[in-house]
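Trying the structure run again after the queue cleared.
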Amino acid sequence: IAVGGEDGHWKVFTLGSVSSFDKFQQNRMLRRDAMPPRKAHEHPITAVAIDENSGLAASGDMAGEIKLWRSGGGSPIQFATDQEVVAHLLPSPNSRSLLGASDHRVFHWLYDEDDATPGPFNGVRLDQEITALAITPDGKTLAVGDASGTVTAWTAVDGANSLRQRTLPAYNTAVDNLAFGRDGASLVTISQSGELARWKFPFQDQVRFSLVQPSGLLIASPDARLAGFSSHRRNLDLYSLPDGTAVRRHIINSGELTAADFSSDGAVVALGGNEGRVYFQDEAKKTLAYMQCDASSVIQIARSPHDDDHYGFVTATGKVGVAGFAGKATSPLAVQGE
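Done. Tokens:
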């Protein structure tokens, strides 16, 4: 664990077990941990990082100075950042490179035993405040989360001195943290408000919908071709996910719409209402049947992931049940509870 202080002092502690060490090794480690921290910076240390592959540790301070420390001691490799406060430090997992960031700028260096040169991501700037950094295992793609909830990724193009940029509007609040999967084909993000998401990488083009009013309901078809939103209390409006165009509108037969879902093949839509009923409509918007689940509102409907013909429901009084989609299941399942 690396620790940096407000007075510029710096120390690295070993957290490994010493039970397998001989007495000489244990005493050596205890003496090292008992040594006072060294004066590493003239200004408060604002970021630290450890590169476990190379055994190096990095520290950055409020004046923009970054130092790379060897485990065996000696003079550190120093980097300059034009007096910008170092807010983040991140070692690349499989290459000898170090990433850092101020509020709006990314720093990137490739280093050897005695020197460092700017890397391909050095100098990248964002209009919004940078809140998180991640890099793929191969070191070729950098992802940056910002205060607006957007994730921006830059990929170094092989054979060209250029970067390919992709942007993902992930959240309405700041990106709190992000990380690539081991294969670099997925990215996990979490927002400041606690929303966790996993994205395929490279990012796909995002489709935005302009709704006539705020929607408290969102469903997606099993083939990810349609998205449904509630409107005007009674309607379920379906849109095409590939291009964002309106497809059709389902209207619940009675009461207000409170829950909905698709059948496993997407051919039937279940519409739950505040009168405790679930109505089933086909692609022509024809009502096939309805089921009285309870006297209170149906607050959730969910198709079964392993049984194509059945769905589960929950009502406002806590009743839970499983039943069959109209035209799909031959008989309902007698399963319900509180």
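The mean pLDDT is 84. Worth checking whether this holds up in the mutant runs.
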